[in-house]
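Students often ask why we bother encoding 3D structure as a string. The short answer is that it lets us treat folding as translation between two languages. Here is a chain of 464 residues written in the first language.
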Amino acid sequence: MTIQRHAGVFVVSIVLLVGVFSAEPGFCSDPFPEYECIKPHVAFWTAVYTDYPTAKGLIHDSSDLSVVYNVIDLWPPDKHGSRKVNAKRIKIAKEKYRRILEQLAGGAARTPEAVRVAGLFGAEANRAVFRRAMGNIRCQIGQRDRFQEGLLRSGAYIEAMKAIMRSHGLPEDLAYLPHVESSFNLNAHSKAGAAGIWQFTRSTGKRFMTVEYTLDERRDPIRSTEAAAQLLKENYRKLENWPMAITAYNHGMAGMWRAKRAKGSYEEVFTDYRSRRFKFASRNFYPEFLAARHVAKNYGRYFDNLELDEPLKTFDVTMGGHASITDLSSHFDVDIETLRTLNPALRRPVLSEQKYVPKGYSLRLPADAAEDQRLFSEELMQTLYKAHQKPSLFYQVRRGDTVGEIARAHGLRVSDVIAANNLDSKGTIYVNQKLRLPLPNRKQDEAKSLRVTSIPNGEAPMVD
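And here it is in the second language, the structure alphabet:
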């Protein structure tokens, strides 16, 4: 067992080597250049983050973000029925400007609004420009309120995250990238299965972190920042500049390597590169980062009376064995909700006592829990530890089974079965598949009679 004290956000082990940083990636005078070709995009995203809340929608051209046709009113996203209402409003607005562009492509500007729209493209615009623009109409939802919420949350982590970047020899401002990815929402989860403030997918996350049934370190802001630093450093070493390395965080290393090979410089990739996967999100990822970085570093200019969350004072205790979360809560006199908040990597099976906190995990505790040093003696801690992890229960899928039927038969929620087995959103299963059943302890004996066998982690499931 080791105890690591930390008076900042979370525990971070950092070795500062004098003179190292100048030789590391990105430590030049301007690691994040704002090229002339992306300035309108940076300005657009700055306005999205600072001027327009989520109850506003910007109807704009997706290729040239200096062309904004109109700003429309939307229902707040948390209002019941907003998705349907907003989709209709956006559709009506986009159709309005498509018709205007169609008139302009035909050589006519019949209304004052059409004349105004034509002026957005400049005096040199011709019919071909308007014809292309017909297919580029897009709506961007404002983000001011979300960005402000992200700024508040970031206060708890940002300095520790900057320190992690520096410890890897990277520019510390890379720590602002989660403003683009997740607004520093620890619970952020995408349709593609990306999770946490850095939005790692499972496959990429597993390269750098533990992502499994008991632990998902993608959801831990500090451990995932360590992983992000490794990935960004890898991108930089292969692509040799930060605009491409940051874009690769969204588009993928292989995709950006193909783009670089095709066009050479980032500026040429931004202006000329076309591919099936290099679309709006990838093209705008670096300009979004520049805008978010600028706003976050100068938030007082854009948001009044904003006080960021204070860094939490915590320390880590490395588990010398498996341990019950309830036993740990009782031992350190820290409620389970606090343990959950400080340890977002712990998954539901651990918090619900289906599994133990795994051996080797560094458990975060509030600083005041360290006042009684007797609690950390090896002898006393050994009384908490279990030699083995709790076994899991599995069910073998039969012909005709559905996830819903299996969940109901075992008194479970469908969403829990889907989450425990990393199924798709539809809960697709196949005959003879072994499904993990996230059962409370009190139901385990009953479940064994239903073609379920209790087995240790890592062994092939046995089916009765």
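Translate back mentally: Residues 53-142 form one domain. Keep this in mind for the problem set.
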